[in-house]
Specification:
mainly alpha; globular; 13 helices; about 80% helix
């Protein structure tokens, strides 16, 4: 490790982040067997909010009203994203949820074009068609999506909206204050909906503690800081490529530790989703290099 450059170390760190994020799907799915969706989300983001509060107090240079307003907006969208994803984990394989959520990368260019009038490349369009065909195969080549797959697709749409808005807002705000407000908004909304459902107290079983440790302390707090630091030393395009490993990681973990068996057609669909994402992100660069060669 001593002989590696800062960029090499950053690349390795982002690969680890992607694998860890993929590893969060199965423990969350297991904890949801005995805990409600909103209780799990509240516990996860409440702990993250406390930690992020201390960070914001230390590193925020000034109180910025924009950071609060934008943080509430982003938090509401992120709440919808995690809510639909968590419901999806209740209804279908964690590996399927991970692959479908990965469609977020394909949806972002279209979301940015709709909101900010950005141009859409032909590669993004072809990548989207490939990924959509993969989604059809992953869902069992049916004309309609199952409830779990439908929730996962909604999650991808909401997270694409979050990513598009976040890229626009983050340049105008105090970063740590913005993230704190985002986490706080998600935890407050989760608390309200958990209270409406009847209880904000979790079932303190083994699956709950494993899920909270992996999702809150490792998946949210640790990975967020590693990602933030690592992306200072590597390119956004490489980071996007590494994050394609997230559903792959979830798929392997689901297969080996939860006996989640996908058919050959579903596996091919999952591969097409990843290929569609990569083609959407890097098709232009690949073809431009081919012409130069």
């Amino acid at each position: 490790m001593k002989n590696l450059s800062a960029q090499n170390k950053a690349d390795i760190a982002l690969i680890v982040v992607a694998i860890v994020w993929g590893a969060t799907f199965l423990p969350m799915a297991n904890a949801l067997k005995t805990n409600s969706v909103f209780v799990m989300l509240f516990c996860r983001f409440f702990l993250s909010t406390i930690f992020m509060g201390f960070v914001a107090l230390k590193f925020t240079k000034k109180f910025d009203k924009k950071s609060v307003i934008y943080g509430v907006i982003l938090g509401a969208v992120l709440f919808l994203s995690f809510t639909t994803q968590t419901y999806a984990l209740k209804l279908t394989f964690s590996s399927s949820v991970a692959f479908i959520t990965g469609l977020e990368c394909v949806i972002v260019p279209f979301m940015a074009a709709f909101i900010f009038k950005n141009k859409i490349t032909i590669f993004a369009i072809f990548g989207a068609f490939i990924a959509i065909f993969g989604l059809w195969l992953l869902s069992g080549a049916a004309l309609t999506l199952g409830a779990g797959e439908a929730f996962a697709l909604l999650c991808a749409i909401f997270y694409a909206l979050y990513t598009s808005l976040n890229g626009h807002f983050v340049r105008k705000c105090e970063l740590y204050l913005l993230v704190f407000v985002v986490f706080l908004t998600v935890s407050l909304l989760s608390f309200v909906f958990a209270f409406i459902e009847g209880s904000v107290l979790p079932n303190y079983d083994r699956e709950f503690f494993i899920a909270i440790f992996i999702t809150a302390f490792i998946g949210t707090i640790f990975c967020y800081f590693v990602q933030t630091i690592a992306q200072r030393y590597t390119t956004a395009s490489k980071a996007a490529l590494f994050f394609c490993l997230e559903p792959v990681s979830a798929g392997f973990i689901g297969y080996f530790f939860a006996d989640e068996k996908l058919t050959l057609i579903q596996i091919f669909g999952a591969i097409l989703i990843i290929f569609g994402v990569i083609f959407s992100e890097f098709g232009k660069k690949f073809f431009s290099r081919s012409k130069l060669a």
